[in-house]
Amino acid sequence: MREPDNPAADSAAAVKCDLACEVLRSFGSLRFSATGWSMLPTIWPGDTLVVERVAQSRNKDNNKDNNKDQVRVGDVVLVGRAGRLCAHRIVSTTRGPENSQWITQGDGMAAPDSPVTGNELLGRVAYLIRAGKLMAVPATLTVVERLLARVVRRSVPAARALVHLHHMRRSSGQPGIFYQDQPYHDQPYQNRPCQH
């Protein structure tokens, strides 16, 4: 759900979006804390996403986008559009004569987003940091995750209850209500603690 239009908030979001684009272009990766519910149950509010740049390169021989080689269906990507950032999963692709486009959708959203162009596709979520551990971002949802996503899509009160329960468990030092068994690495993330 989007908040009512607020020019100051929209301006701040646009500045954040521009800064994120510049960081990705300059350094090749970006970390930020997830705030929304659109990717439940894969990504929870408070998870730190680590995004790697998707090169905006063109094949010199046939002048076609090479982005399609760097992302595929199932990847969670960062999109910058209308001054906002959004991390959603690629659910399909369309290939035009000149450019590829990607259809994205949040795991907890009922409908897909409008097609994403190569200029809007900023990066791929390489992994996330949850409860101090690096976690792989799965390309597909398990049966339990699909069930939770369906509940989130259909019931805002249920989504609020899940997020509240997850936050309460994390605040008490437990990993949250839905914690993947297979971490990206077995070692805790030492460089910077996960923000809650």
Summarize the structure.
With about 200 residues, the chain is an alpha+beta fold.
Structure notes:
- The protein has 196 residues and is an alpha+beta fold.
- It has a single domain (7-188), classed as Ribbon (Umud Fragment, subunit A), CATH 2.10.109.10.
- Helix content is 25%, strand content 28%.
- It is built from three helices and eight strands; from the N terminus they run αβββββββααβ.
- Strands 1, 2, 3, 4, 5, 6, 7 and 8 form an eight-stranded antiparallel beta sheet that branches.
- The protein is globular.
How many structural domains does the protein architecture include?
A: 1
The pLDDT mean sits at: 82
Our measurement of the CA-to-CA distance between the termini, rounded to an integer number of angstroms, reads: 21 Å
Q: Please tell me what the overall shape is.
A: globular
Helical segment count: 3
Task: Supply Rg.
Answer: 17 Å
- How many strands, which pairing sense, and closed or not: the largest β-sheet? 8 strands, antiparallel
Fraction in beta strands: 25-35%
Question: What is the name of the CATH superfamily?
Answer: Umud Fragment, subunit A
| CATH-derived architecture | Ribbon
Could you name the CATH topology?
Answer: Umud Fragment, subunit A
Unreliable stretches covering 5 or more consecutive residues: 57-63, 180-196
Total strands: the figure is 8
Highest CATH level, the class: Mainly Beta
Could you state the order of secondary-structure elements as H and E?
HEEEEEEEHHE
Range of helix content: 25-40%
Name the structural class.
Answer: alpha+beta
